[in-house]
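Q: Hi! New to this. If I give you a protein sequence and the SMILES for flavin-adenine dinucleotide, can you show me the bound structure?
A: Yes, paste them in.
Q: Okay, here:
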Amino acid sequence: MRFRLTEDQRALQSATRGLLERVCPPKALRAMADGAGPPRLDRVVWAALAEAGVFALRLPEDAGGVGLGAPEAVLVFEELGRALVPGPLAATHLAAGRVAGAATGETVVTRADGGLVAWLAEADVVEGYGTGGGAGPSGAGPSGVGPPGAESPGAGAFGAVPPVALPPGPGLPGAVPLRSVDPLTPLHRVPAPADPGPWDPSAALLTAAEQLGTAGRVTELAVRYAREREQFGRPVGSFQAVKHLCADMLVRTELARAAVYAAALSGDPAETAGAKLISDDAAVANARDCVQIHGGMGFTWEADIHLHLKRAWLRARTRPVAAEAEEAAARALAASAGPPAPRPSL
Amino acid sequence: MDFGPTEEEAAFRTELRSWLATALPRLPPKPSPDDWPGRRAYDTHWQRMLYDAGYGRLHWDADPGLRLVFLEETELAGAPYVGANFVGLLHAGPTIAAEGTPEQRERWLGPILRGDEIWCQGFSEPGAGSDLAALRTRAVRDGDAYVVTGSKIWTSHAEVADWCELLVRTDPAAPRHRGISWLALSMDAPGITVRPLRTLAGTAEFAEVFLDEVRVPAAHRVGAENDGWRVTMVTLSFERGTAFAGEVVACRRTLAALAAAARETGRWDDPVLRRRLGRLHAEFTALWRLVQWNVSEARTGGTVPGPGGSVFKLRYSGARQELYETAAEVLGPDALDLGREWAVDRLSSLSYTIAAGTSQIQRNIIAERLLGLPKGGA
Ligand SMILES: Cc1cc2nc3c(=O)[nH]c(=O)nc-3n(C[C@H](O)[C@H](O)[C@H](O)COP(=O)(O)OP(=O)(O)OC[C@H]3O[C@@H](n4cnc5c(N)ncnc54)[C@H](O)[C@@H]3O)c2cc1C
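A: Thanks. Here is the predicted structure of the protein with flavin-adenine dinucleotide bound:
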């Protein structure tokens, strides 16, 4: 057992971090959040991500991809989450190899998930709309979509993806724009099917990785502020009440890290659901604590923390949501609880 | 990054599994929890069986990957836990192995591994708990011995112990952390009185130990005189870093038993309860992954676990309490029946956020040593 990052994985991690600091710095995000109207997807940044292999990461090399696996995808998505990169990252990544142009960043792919679609107006392809209960139209295969049922790339946790794709834009029936809580993610509401069908473990894993990135990032922001900000003649980080908030943030992050990395390795859907649950909690609770530690500053639009918090909320809304993840874990538990009770007193 | 077993781990698992299958039926019946001499005999017997089979050292100087296999397999097979051997195997033994002289290792490690001698931990005092460096038990040098006077408290297993890892103040004039020494105290020495304390679970798990001019040979000091605080940190890092790992496996088994019970009684159909159990399953799965992560990281570090153990200890101790709160919901009225092991375990779970450093102290350690926040403050 070598449950730690290899040299190559560390190199990938730091290269991704370096790239994102260049192409997606906080200043650019801030400008986007401060702009009027819904944000536009920066296609130049998108192309840079594609160029770095973000979308083609798990495509086999002979199909023009990077040929890496789920653990590497998780490391990259952790960095994307840390850097708060906007856009339908997971959907496009998961469409690589099935939807023409997704791997190279020419086609932006989004998904309907839990009654919401992010980046509808900016995307070229929408997946998942109308699957499951059939509340929306289904079956249409517009240009730009690969053959249905084509092999999805990679191994491990990455399995089937929703087969349906539709052209985006005002043509998508029933889509209503929301005033999105996340100023960096435009949202549309779509009629949710009565029976939403199974959730996609691959998407859950990548989202969990992004949540892990957020959990770690806001811990850093909180700790940095706690060391710098002085009250009563000393750094607020010397006060135990603040210290203990920070300590809990680190503990949540580290448990989420173990859970997410492990789910990437095991590929087990129940473990993936658990990882989503734990990393959702870590991202949301840590972002809230980070606001608290920043005091009045934390409640301002100027501090970036609210952007992290809102994205964490949004990702927590994607499937499996907490109740679904808990049910999945409960099913796995029941399956593991064979008939004989190990405790004699039971 | 992988979970794939090394060849050595896979071979070890197979061999251990088949040994357990033949060894466990040979165990004598389990004594009652109140029967301390019986428990000691049972636990040391088990340790001897492990030793004879070549598994005695697994807790401290084996490949940490093998140790995890050992913990998993023994727990899954329903083998006994370390029990009364706890301090010797998990704290004192590793400390002596890391810090002792060759003679000291020769004198103490063999008996610990063979299950011949039981250790206890004499760190806490009535006036020095979280603030361990406030300890006042005095040791005055007299020729080639120390004369020790003072008292210790919450000393687990003191009644049945042969040796005690004892912290004493050897230089009262020095700054608090500088005047401490780490001694091996023979519990037979004249001048020692052990007074059992009753826990809130009604059991006698720990005791008060009074020391009245007890002579301890200077050769029984581990580490240099007045350098005991550093040695203590080594002991505590074992205590927090690795000692609880095996219990996560036990908690996962308990949780599975709880789910089975809930299904039998129909409580499983309550979605609120079922989801709570599901959440705990996710939590304990992740905690086991965290153990694997810490162990993999430790393999590349030194032999002494780092402060990352505090991260695990803090989360684990809270999760364990949540587990037994949920158990009480599954059991309903039976949760109040002390005749049920669950009820006793629920009470015992309260000690986890106190013993081996309270949760507040773990948070201080994490904030100051891992996150680099300033010390002190109100
Ligand atoms: C079941 C059990 C077995 C034990 N076995 C042993 C043993 O074998 N050998 C041994 O030496 N000891 C043993 N202990 C003692 C244990 O290590 C101490 O109880 C523990 O360190 C806490 O010390 P205390 O009891 O003096 O509490 P105190 O230190 O008095 O703490 C009281 C409260 O104040 C809080 N507190 C204290 N200081 C701070 C601070 N700086 N910041 C914030 N909060 C603070 C604590 O968290 C706690 O809530 C055992 C304890 C238990 C419960």
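A: Chain B has three domains: 7-114, 119-224, 240-371. Let me know if you'd like me to explain how to read the tokens.
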